[in-house]
Specification:
355 residues, mainly alpha, Glycosyltransferase, 0% strand
């Protein structure tokens, strides 16, 4: 049974020791993070956005990057968050839809996640109240978008384009689950059924057996063309985070170990985001440390002097169009999973909000 808001201790003493021994790598990580955050601060426009296209998704990611490694924020960063929050509220629908015109469910989920995690830092009382109201509407809107059809292949998932579009999409569904999980940790009402069906959909293409042993433990490509690497990383995160089947979890660990992350597209940043979080909660300290070192080196090698991070080869044009705000914010979120203060990256239930 999946408990969406159940606190669990997953980080072992062994992992803590490994992280201590690897402390020498904190230098590059800190440099990438500090330079990346400096770059993001400079990219915010007067209206609070971080540029087109997909301005809601990019604003959400930039907000998450700002708060993920800071327990307290200086007045300037609070201003950045408040301006971004104002932008999201002013340019979103009163119905609760926070999404962009493209990739609507994914961008809505990320913007909602950002507002959830940023709310405690807001100083303007009126803005804080309005943000809480929009968060409540946004969660209800996201839950309404979940597929409740009778089809076992789609039930529980989310379409990328919201209520429109073709089939359900596992990438959109993973971000929706992450947002729902965070809302539940804050004490908001998300039913077990919503979470269980979402996880079941996300794991629907898991390969428990296959003619090729190399495929066992991975997940098949999504109907909309998502790569095996991405879907398998998201599946591992779901297995680890929601008390998945032990046999499936073991097979997925072996798949992730056999298929290390390379610097190539088309979903490098999404895949590494979920891969590191999967390994963190799988309690696999050596594989986690090895994977993180590989990814950190890749990002360090492709960070420019201004702090921005480039795209690997093979990315889709619609992803490249989002530019370095997307890549740099994702790089900060990817590398700081250890010390992330986002509730979805931790094992505790935070103070209830948004009631």
């Amino acid at each position: 049974m999946i408990e969406a808001g159940t606190p669990r201790i997953r980080i072992s003493f062994v992992l803590a020791c490994v992280m201590f021994l690897c402390h020498g790598h904190a230098g590059p990580q800190d440099t990438i993070t500090r330079s990346g955050l400096d770059y993001l601060r400079l990219q915010q426009d007067e209206d609070g956005s971080f540029g087109q296209p997909q301005p809601h998704l990019k604003a959400g990611l930039a907000m998450l990057a700002l708060v993920c490694v800071q327990t307290t924020l200086n007045p300037k960063d609070i201003e950045h968050l408040e301006r971004a929050t104002v932008y999201l509220i002013k340019t979103s629908a009163a119905s609760g839809d926070l999404g962009d015109d493209m990739f609507r469910t994914e961008s809505h989920s990320i913007a909602l996640l950002a507002m959830l995690c940023s709310h405690e830092f807001l100083k303007d009382a009126k803005l804080k109240e309005e943000s809480a109201q929009r968060i409540s509407r946004g969660l209800k809107y996201l839950l309404r978008l979940q597929d409740r059809s009778s089809s076992s292949s789609s039930r529980g998932g989310w379409r990328m384009e919201g209520s429109k579009g073709r089939a359900n999409d596992r990438r959109a569904s993973a971000w929706a689950l992450l947002s729902c999980q965070t809302a539940a940790l804050y004490g908001m009402e998300v039913s077990k059924t919503n979470m269980e069906q979402g996880v079941r959909y996300l794991l629907g293409s898991f390969k428990a057996d296959a003619e090729s042993k190399d495929q066992i433990g991975g997940l098949s490509v999504d109907t909309l063309g998502l790569t095996v690497n991405l879907v398998s990383s998201m599946g591992g995160w779901a297995l680890a985070r929601f008390d998945g089947n032990a046999s499936m979890l073991k097979k997925n660990i072996l798949w992730l170990e056999k298929h290390p992350q390379a610097w190539k597209g088309p979903n490098y940043f999404y895949a590494t985001f979920f891969r590191l979080r999967a390994l963190k909660f799988m309690d696999e300290p050596e594989l986690y440390a090895e994977t993180k070192k590989r990814i950190m080196n890749q990002l360090q090698d492709h960070q420019s002097s201004d702090g921005s991070v480039s795209f690997p080869p093979g990315n889709a044009q619609n992803t490249i169009a989002m530019g370095s705000v997307f890549t740099t914010a994702m790089a900060v979120l990817i590398l700081n999973v250890d010390n992330s203060r986002l509730p979805c990256d931790e094992d505790y239930r935070v103070e209830p909000r948004f009631q």
